[in-house]
Specification:
By secondary structure, the protein is an alpha+beta fold. Helix content is 34%, strand content 21%. The protein has eleven helices and twelve strands. The chain has helices spanning 22-33, 104-116, 136-144, 148-157, 165-175, 179-185, 191-202, 207-211, 216-240, 295-307, 359-367, and strands spanning 10-17, 37-39, 49-55, 65-68, 71-79, 90-98, 253-257, 264-268, 279-284, 327-330, 335-343, 346-354. The strands form three sheets. A five-stranded antiparallel beta sheet has the order 2-3-1-5-4, with helices on one face. Strands 8-7-9-10 form a four-stranded antiparallel beta sheet. A hairpin with a 6-residue loop joins strand 7 and strand 8. Helix 5 runs antiparallel to helix 6 (179-185) and helix 9 packs across helix 10. The longest helix has 25 residues, at 216-240. The two termini are 42 Å apart.
Amino acid sequence: MTSEPCEGCVPIYRVEKRGIDTLHMVRVLSEKLKGSVNFAGMKDKRARATQYVSPRSSRAERPQAVEHQLFRAERIGFSPRPIGRRSIVGNRFKLVLRGVQDGISTSIEDVFASCRERAIPNFYGYQRFGLRGMVNHRIGREILRRNFQEAVRILLCDSREGEDSSAREAREAASNGRYHEALTLFTKSQDIERRVLRRLSDHNGDPLGSLRAVPIQVRRLFVHAYQSYLFNVTLSRAAASKMELGKTTSGDNWSIVDEHQLNPEGVHGAREPAPDDAIPMVQLVGYSFRDYGSRFDSIIGGVLKEEEVEPKHFYMKEAQEMSSEGGFRHAPLLAKELQYRLDDSSASLGFSLGRGEYATSLVREIVK
């Protein structure tokens, strides 16, 4: 990255935000910069977060700063390539647990020790599934089953925790087919529901077309949330059966950790001999899923049977933009720079996690 503009370079922005999720922030910033924006990682809506973004095109606008009531984006330099997921090594977290009870220090020490031994499961955080209603993966499941009508019903009609009476009325109106009425009741912040309702109002009886009114990143998120759900169930069952997650055994797909000790580098086959410091990799189910005979693959097979879903369902001829090949995710949480401080009835935590890892997964181990 350079401090001065260069031919073909794109501006890089540091964004400080709170009270807005990454996808909505990116949508607003894209309008301000008059071009599509890339970002590196999703940040929680409620957290005070800093992240980096860039336009995809060097022809985009490049103001020194963009001010918004929920975020501020400041230009910090220029790069010959747009920001991408691989642009970041990891994330540093600082958080405070309030109202903690006696013995919290023991719990923190135990969890931090388990982190160093790579014994904490690398679960996807609850926010992946939609904290207020846990509907994202359920919508994704119905999309994969080609039950688009049910996917739309869940999105519009199922209640969310903490919603006000107007939202509840809107969902009831939508469930009864009163789409115009529901559209007037949902707030501007519930823009996903409003997009779907507008499409339904104009093209009643077209559930797949209504889903396509949702931004592509969110549509893919529904399917990815279901992949995450399958992964979490698999890892939970592996942990419950006392499988060792931090070390490979014969038959595992595996990876070595990068120089920063935060991210795996590549995936090696189950038949390749693994070094002592290798970590096991678990498949994320997609249409390329294969049963290599590993201890994790056998669990995944049982989960898929219970869910009545097959890997081939992840390729959707009628909705190819939501298809997913699948991939791998490391089994243990990779955490470093673990610190904490106690102060009266609170505990301040600091730690670094790799790409795609969730602070909520570590904190849950402490407070559960």
